[in-house]
Every structure is written in structure tokens, then in C-alpha cells.
Amino acid sequence: MQRGMKNEGDLNRIKRIIAWYNMIPNLIWSILNLTPISIYCFTLLNYKTFCIFLTASLIPIFLKNSFLDKLQIGKTIKIYKQLGVQLINKVAQNGVIINNLIKRKFPDHKVVTSKKSSVAGLITRTYIFEKFHLILFLFFSLTIIYAFLKSHWGWACIILLTNIAYNIYPNLLQQYIRLKLILFGKKLK
Fold it and tell me: What is the mean pLDDT of residues 53-70?
């Protein structure tokens, strides 16, 4: 086997390690940001309202990627940098810290290769993640409105802050990553 080439067993081992590394920030962010809304929903939101909010929040599943492109706030990465999105990219799953840890263990590993299919696959993943966080954004937003209407001011503010951290910034991150991938893809042509 040539130097740098990996067999299927090595590739599977690398994939498992990457999944474990990415699980850590995912778990931390999820616990921090889903705990408040979970407590609120289980203690102060009635079941029927919960079901209505959940159903209404599923609408983004049916959105086309072209619609998500219209939601993009910038055509360049400049606005995203001004909003601090690259800082979120450092601590997110598949982010800078995780990729640096993986690079230390597997120096030849590349997140993005020069294959167009690699770039296209990662762009597709950004749309999936964006839809996921858009679903949660809608659910959080409906819950915030409900909390305000019920005069649960503290809960409304906490859920608002977690909505920004867990849904708005991750969606901006997906847009940022997509722009960077598109720029990278143009360099391949």
C-alpha cells in the first residue's frame, strides 16, 4: 500500500473517531440550550399547544434549498465575520477545534478534498443542518411568544437567548460554510 493511502479499516476507524470528537460539542451545546425549553414545555406548556407548535415548526422540512438561499444574509463572508460567526465555527461540531484535534491524530485527513463531489456533499449537509435549526428556531420562537403572552418573562428571555445561540448562529454558520465551500468549488474549476 502506498504511503498516505488508508485501507477500509483505517477509514472506518477515522470516521468513528471523528464522530466521537464531534459528539462532544454537539452534546454540550444541546444540553445547554435544550434544557431550558424542555423544562418550560414540560412544566408550563400544555400538551395541545406543544403539539400545535411542533407541527407548525416542521414546515422547513418541505422548503427547497433555493428558498434557504434567499434567507442568506450575505453574498460574501464579510457580514458573517462581522457577526462573529467564525468564532462559533471554532467551537461547533466539525469546527476548527475539532478539525485541529483530528489533524493532530491523522495529519493526512482532509475535511474537504479537491473532488467536486466532496464540496457538493458538504454543501448538501449545510442545507440539512440549516433546516434542522430552522425547525428548532420556529419551535423556540412560538414558545417565546407563548411565554410572553403568559407573562413568563424570565422564561421568554432565557429561551430567546438559547434560540440565538442554538438556532440563529448555527444557521448563520451553515450559510457561512456554504459560501466558503462555493468559493472553494470555484477555485477547482
Answer: 97
